[in-house]
């Protein structure tokens, strides 16, 4: 009779998931276009030790935004192609973090929510959204048009693509960097038709939410108010972007798996 084989103790020991997740680096990614008022008001509240990299992608500001970013010692990239989605596309190769936090320095994103947002991501999510409409949070930046639009698009994305969002449109969120490529958000063809139809360049957030829902990724939300804009001018193109995003929601029912 042979003795039972002893359990092996020399097998490859993987570090526990929490150890891997806690070592993941973070990049705060900020697109800017003439946001000097917001930057001066908001950035002193962002503590350097919260993230590993602060990357400002400037779309050609003429009000000193880029100079302010350089003075503060942030990584600064001058966007080459027009349109907010190119701020993200061109940033990709300069992002050092495993986790990207997209943040609007115009006053709409509350800096103190950065640590809890990262904490939530470290639980292992693909994406965590700072929702303006979850659990008592609210937006002071909305007018009736944007409030209606944000709720309508969120409801449509949930209905058409099986999402479970309360805010599918907001910029303030964190995601695993590879998601951008896995969901083909780096490809011009993902946005080409709607941009040609409505003579505009769109943002990435609606398509990111749609495709994350379609792939049934592991995403969640934390509640976070949206304060009103701190100076500067709104860049939102209500009619063009509204039309383009509606097109995306419907197109994605059939196209892209
Ligand atoms: N680099 C770059 N940044 C942009 C561009 N368009 C807008 N931004 C910046 O992107 C950030 C987010 O803008 P949003 O909050 O989506 O737009 P907004 O004009 O504030 O409109 P609402 O917040 O929706 O009312 C702000 O810091 C803008 O200055 C662009 O084409 N390139
Ligand atoms: Mg804004």
Uncertain residue segments: none
Q: Structural class of the secondary structure composition? A: alpha/beta
User: CATH superfamily, called what?
Assistant: Spore Coat Polysaccharide Biosynthesis Protein SpsA, Chain A
How many strand elements?
7
Instruction: Give every kind of bound small molecule, once each.
Output: guanosine-5'-triphosphate, magnesium ion
Domain tally: 1
Fraction of residues in H or I helices: 25-40%
Lateral arrangement of strands in the main beta sheet: 3-2-1-4-6-5-7
N-end to C-end Cα span: 56 Å
Mean pLDDT: 95
Radius of gyration from the alpha-carbon trace, in angstroms: 20 Å
CATH topology: Spore Coat Polysaccharide Biosynthesis Protein SpsA, Chain A
Query: In the CATH hierarchy, what is the architecture at level 2?
Result: Alpha-Beta Complex
Globally, the shape reads: globular
């Amino acid at each position: 009779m042979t003795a039972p084989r002893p359990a092996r103790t020399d097998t490859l020991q993987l570090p526990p998931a929490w150890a891997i997740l806690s070592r993941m680096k973070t990049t705060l990614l900020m697109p800017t276009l003439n946001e000097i008022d917001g930057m001066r008001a908001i950035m002193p509240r962002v503590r350097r030790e919260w993230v590993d990299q602060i990357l400002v992608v400037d779309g050609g500001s003429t009000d000193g935004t880029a100079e302010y970013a350089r003075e503060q010692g942030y990584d600064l990239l001058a966007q080459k192609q027009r349109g907010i989605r190119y701020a993200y596309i061109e940033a990709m190769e300069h992002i050092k973090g495993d986790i990207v936090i997209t943040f609007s320095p115009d006053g709409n994103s509350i800096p103190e929510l950065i640590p809890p947002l990262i904490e939530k991501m470290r639980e292992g999510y693909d994406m965590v959204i700072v929702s303006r409409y979850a659990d008592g949070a609210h937006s002071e930046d909305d007018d009736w048009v944007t409030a209606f639009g944000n709720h309508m698009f969120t409801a449509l994305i949930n209905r058409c693509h099986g999402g479970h969002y309360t805010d599918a449109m907001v910029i303030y969120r964190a995601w695993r960097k590879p998601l951008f490529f896995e969901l083909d958000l780096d490809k011009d063809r993902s946005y080409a038709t709607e941009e040609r139809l409505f003579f505009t360049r769109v943002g990435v957030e609606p398509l990111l939410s749609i495709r994350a829902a379609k792939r049934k990724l592991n995403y969640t939300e934390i509640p976070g108010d949206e304060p009103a804009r701190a100076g500067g001018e709104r860049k939102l193109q209500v009619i063009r972007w509204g039309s383009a995003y509606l097109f995306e929601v419907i197109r994605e029912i059939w196209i892209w798996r």
